[in-house]
Structure formats: C-alpha cells, structure tokens
Write a structure and sequence with these properties.
three-stranded antiparallel beta sheet; 3 strands; disordered C terminus
C-alpha cells in the first residue's frame, strides 16, 4: 500500500474529490436501490456490492491512466475517434433499446452493454485537443483553421442526436466553450450556434415526419417543462418523475431526513441514476446538495489551474476539455432535478449508479491527473518552462510533427 501511494501523483485535491464522490455514490446508491432490489427479487445489498465493484475498478482505471504520459493520447486520438464513428452508426440502427432510446450496444460473450456516446465523447475531446494545438497558428482563419477542427464535432453530434439529443446538445455546447478557449473567432462561434439551431430544427422535422428518432419524446418533455401539458396528461403520470423529484427535494429541507429515511426514494423513478441528486437532497438537505455541487466546482477549479500551468497546448486543452464536459454534465443533471431545464436522461458523473459510464468518466479523470502529474514533475523541476511569444513562433515549425510539444 505504501508503494502504491508513493507512485500516486497528480493533483491531490482532485484525488480527494474523487474519493469523496465514491463515498457519496455508495451512500446514495444503497439508499435509493432498496425498492429496486425488492422489485427485482435481489438481496438488499446487491446493488451496493455491484457499485462497490464498479467504483473500485474505476479507481484502478484512474490510477493506471494517470501513470501514462498524457502526450501518448495525442497519438491514439485519431485511431480512437475513427473507431467510435462505426460504433455510433451501429448503435443508431442496431443498438439495444432502453427507455425508448437506442444508446447502448451489447458486447458478445461477456454480455455487457455500454453507451457508445461515452466513448465518442472521450475520443472527440482527445482529437479536439490535438487539432486545436496543431492549428493555433491558423485557428482564426475560417477555412484553414476553424473548419478542420469543427467537422469532427458536427459529425459526432449528428450521429448521437437521434437517440440521445441531450448528450449531443451538451457536447456541442461544451465544444463551443473549448473553441472559445482555443482562440476561435467569436463570429465563427456565433455562426456555429446558428448552424446548430438550424440543424436541430432539421433533425426534429425529419424525426417527426419519418418516425426515426425521438421527436415525440422531445416535444413531450419540452411541453411538460413549459407547463403546456393538460391536467389529464399530468394525472395519467406523464410528468410523474418530475413531480416526485420536486416532492423529494421539498421534503429534504435544510439538513435532510437522514441517510435512508427519505420516503421519496420509493416513488421516484430512476432515483439511483438520473434523479439521484433529488434523493441526495431529500436525505441530506440543501446543505448536502450544496456540498455535492461544490465538489464538482472544486474539480473544475483545480483543472483550470492545471490548464493555466501546463506549458503545452495539447495538455492544457485536454485537461480543460475533459473537466468542463464532466462538470457541465453534472450541472445539467442537477438542473433537471430542480426543474430548471427539461428532463434529459443525463446521469450525475461518478455518483449515479452505472458501469461503463463510470469507467469512461474514470478515464477522463485519469487523463486530467496525468497532465497534472506532468506539470508537477516536469515544470516544477525546471525541465520544461512556459515559453515566450518568440519561442512559440520558432517552435511552431514543428507543430505538424509533434502536437504534444506545442506551447500553450
């Protein structure tokens, strides 16, 4: 154990946040799966033990990934992204359907499902970090710079949108933030936002006319959020999950009802995944909900510090891109639970019950810690120093050959 701790590097605060996330996840999952275990005729601790195994594997993934020099991810980004596109296409037409959405594929032999959009998100941000670092010299040029980094984002969002619109929208918005950080012109970003609105309108229209996709579900959720559903529809239970989420939050008060004492968890659908934040507030109150939110903001703040300290563009973009998408997903999940946005189906990263989603998130955290480890070991020792503008111009000549050493 001592040797393992000695080999553990990276930002200590991020490591602490991850451990607290795991602890909160075990408490919340165990409490919110009692009714599920009863319905599925499982032991009361079945889902707790399963989540312990998933999180233990996730922590090992984080440790293993953080030991890899992050510059190696620049070399596999293209291959990983290339592999994710056929998987998204396969999922769109032949994926396993759950809750009216075809988002998963089932792996043969081991009989395990995973959400291909999780892999695509990871691959996209790795590729985006690489492309932005390569194109910094011409990024403000629309044809030579912006288009070359934009097309993977558009392709990924288009393939994800029919079955998982919320993930596609989250991905597109997060990429816009990364583009802004990567010095893309604001007018190009405004043009991209306009294209996104037109694209969503086209996807919705095609889905509505052909029946391919989930246009009816999207329309129903937007109407429900806007209060346009009739009273009869509400009585039939179309808005049941949102109503039960509100009840759970309202019952929590300031300090909550205590671990396992909330009655709302027995009525709230998917209270162990999509609406786990509502259960956390019910049992730990607004104080507990604020602590969970603070943990995500703390993770983002530490990642921004890594971004600012990293001397090379690829590592900086990689750290900030992966951290922003993780925190933004968490904020969307919380916003859904408190009814600030329509229901999306996004889980709370590292806290909601899951399998492959936790592991892909663990890979992202491991990469962020890998960048932090590099900064701690190389920059502090004086082996690598932030560059001046003159040095940047000189080193820009080797951009195409070595994306990992592009100065930030």
């Amino acid at each position: 154990m001592q040797g393992l701790l000695q080999k553990t590097r990276g930002d200590k605060v991020i490591w602490a946040v991850v451990i607290v996330w795991a602890f909160v996840s075990l408490l919340a999952v165990y409490s919110s799966t009692q009714s599920l275990a009863y319905r599925m005729d499982k032991n009361a601790t079945y889902y707790l033990l399963k989540q312990i195994g998933v999180l233990a594997a996730g922590l090992m993934i984080i440790y293993w990934v953080h030991r890899i020099n992050y510059t190696r991810f620049a070399k596999i980004a293209v291959v990983l992204y290339g592999a994710s596109i056929p998987l998204l296409l396969y999922t769109m037409f032949f994926g396993t359907t759950y809750n009216e959405g075809s988002r998963w594929i089932r792996l043969p032999v081991i009989n395990v499902t995973f959400q291909t959009s999780d892999m695509a998100k990871l691959a996209l941000f790795m590729l985006l970090a690489r492309s932005l670092s390569l194109k910094q010299g011409v990024i403000k040029d629309f044809k030579k710079g912006f288009i070359s980094v934009l097309w993977p984002v558009l392709l990924t969002c288009i393939l994800i949108a029919p079955a998982n619109l919320s993930t596609a929208l989250m991905l597109g918005f997060t990429c816009c933030i990364i583009f802004f950080i990567g010095r893309v012109r604001v007018k190009h970003l405004m043009l991209l936002m306009l294209a996104g609105i037109i694209g969503f309108a086209c996807i919705f229209t095609v889905s509505k006319l052909t029946g391919f996709g989930r246009a009816n579900t999207w329309e129903k959720r937007i109407k429900s959020f806007a209060g346009l559903e009739s009273q009869d529809a509400e009585k039939k239970g179309d808005d049941f999950q949102v109503l039960q989420g509100k009840i759970a939050i309202a019952s929590g008060g300031l300090f909550g009802q205590g671990p396992g004492h909330s009655e709302a968890k027995d009525f709230l659908p998917h209270g162990y995944s999509d609406f786990i934040y509502a259960n956390i507030i019910a049992e730990y109150g607004l104080v507990g909900g604020a602590v969970v939110m603070f943990l995500y903001l703390l993770f983002l703040w530490r990642s921004i510090i890594i971004f600012k300290r990293c001397p090379f563009a690829f590592g900086a973009f990689l750290a900030v891109g992966l951290s922003i998408t993780l925190v933004f997903q968490a904020m969307l999940n919380m916003a859904v639970c408190v009814h600030l946005v329509p229901v999306t189906g996004l889980t709370l990263p590292m806290i909601s019950m899951g399998g492959s989603s936790v592991w892909f998130t663990s890979i992202s955290i491991g990469i962020v810690l890998s960048v932090s480890r590099y900064v701690d070991e190389e920059v502090k020792d004086g082996k690598v120093k932030p560059t001046t503008k003159a040095q940047r111009k000189k080193e820009s000549k080797i951009v195409n050959q070595n994306p990992e050493v592009v100065p930030a």
